[in-house]
Amino acid sequence: MKDSTHKHIAIFASGRGSNAQAIIDHFKGNTAIKVALIVTNNKTAGVIQIAKDNRIPFDIISPAELKEEETTLDLLELYQIDLIVLAGFLLLIPAYLVKAYPNKIINIHPALLPKYGGKGMYGSKVHETVLSNKETETGITIHYVNEKYDEGEYIAQFRCHVEPSDSTETITAKVHKLEHEHYPKEIEKLLS
To answer: Over the stretch 92-150, which tens digit does the pLDDT of each residue have?
Structure first.
């Protein structure tokens, strides 16, 4: 049952969960906002251990289950979710979910959209493309989710320089630093 003083976040993640961990850490002890649920589509995702370590309920949802409107909405209702936060979630959010949570689903993308977005553009693939195109800056985009990959309205963008000596690994580290610093703060702004 929901403590009415808290806003509840569901984090959807497919991988290691470093952004999920940053968000959880940011809201530890917060009297107004808490991470109430972790959802993953990957039964071997690192984010599952993060959920266990932080005593946060989690659910593993298959691509087919995600398309089942009643199943997914019932789960989110059970945990009385106010905001869905995508943190490296690689499945497309179905239209019914976007409709049920208008401007209540956000994503973080590891590039300055509209560049380097869309299906298949995630993680190191984005950074490799930034390097091969000899960009001088990259960064992150926090945006609302609509029915298409990376096309929702922007909430915020944060930038970092790309040096000629940078590699995929160094760009990944710079972008992760931006993500971990800014994503939790932007979530807090949206829910305050």
So the answer is: 999 999 999 999 999 999 999 999 999 889 989 999 999 999 999 999 999 999 999 99
Question: Is 161 a catalytic site residue?
Answer: no
- Report pLDDT for 161: 98
Q: For residue 158, give both structure tokens.
A: 């944060």
Which listed residue (109, 127, 143, 182) is catalytic? 109
Q: What's the N-to-C CA distance of the chain in angstroms?
A: 21
Distance CA 170, CA 145 (A): 28
Rg over alpha carbons for the chain, rounded to the nearest Å, is: 16
Residue 146 has phi, psi (to 5 degrees) of: -120, -160
Tally Cβ neighbours within 10 Å of residue 78.
14
Distance CA 169, CA 1 (A): 43
Q: Exposed (0-12), middle (13-18) or buried (19+): which is 130, by Cβ within 10 Å?
A: buried
Query: Mind listing the domains of the chain with CATH numbers?
Result: 7-191 (3.40.50.170)
